[in-house]
Amino acid sequence: MLEPLRQGLPPLDPAAVSNAASCALPARYEAVREARQFTRRTLDQWDIGDRFDDVCLVVSELVTNALRHGLPTSNGHAPDQIPPVRLHLMRWTERLVCAVRDPSHDSPVARDSDDFSAESGRGLFLVDSFADGWGWHPLAGTLNGKVVWALFRLQSAE
Q1: Is the pLDDT of residue 5 over 60?
Q2: Structure confidence at residue 7 (pLDDT)
Q3: Buried b vs exposed e over 104-138: b needs ≥16 C-beta within 10 Å?
Q4: Distances from the Cα of 29 to the Cαs of 61, 77, 114, 122, 136, in angstroms?
Q5: Which DSSP string corresponds to the chain?
Q6: How far apart are CA 105 and CA 70, in angstroms?
Q7: 100 phi/psi in degrees, rounded to 5
Q8: With b meaning 16 or more CB within 10 Å and e meaning fewer, what string describes 36-53?
Q9: Using CA atoms, how far apart are residues 135 and 127, in angstroms rounded to an integer?
């Protein structure tokens, strides 16, 4: 179990965000493809499509983990009334944050595995390898669950 991490996360001051976009994702594994498509469109609109490969891999892992471990059922399906998983992309001048919200209060668990040929269990390792930082925090107030986020540093526009 990982303790909530917040270091490296930009201030959540809405005035400091230069761009933000989010999408609700259905409780089915096809949502990973939808999240990648949403990420591609958004990064292209923000003229940072050159970071797509790294960001897409991390978004895919975070959404997959939310569907696999963050939903009330173990098969990746939940009631369709309320989209239980949401992807947020937030851009500051030199930083991009990808955040995935799910209804679970359970902390992410990074598995220690020396088997790099394993087909599962390496998601947080990949997130840690491709992002400049990541963490999670529980939601407060009227929102239930948690947010797992990944930070990417962007090249300055100079």
Answers
A1: no
A2: 47
A3: beebbeeeeeeeeeeeeebbbeebeebbebbbbee
A4: 12, 8, 27, 17, 22
A5: -PPP--TTPPP--GGG-SEEEEEEE-SSTTHHHHHHHHHHHHHHHTT-GGGHHHHHHHHHHHHHHHHHHSSSSTTS---SSS--EEEEEEE-SSEEEEEEEES--SPP-----S-TT-SSS-HHHHHHHHSSEEEEEE--TT--SEEEEEEEE-----
A6: 8
A7: -120, 125
A8: bebbeebbeebebeebbe
A9: 10
Residues 43-95 pLDDT 10s: 999 999 899 999 999 999 999 999 998 887 645 444 544 678 999 999 988 89
Is the whole-model pTM more than 0.85? no
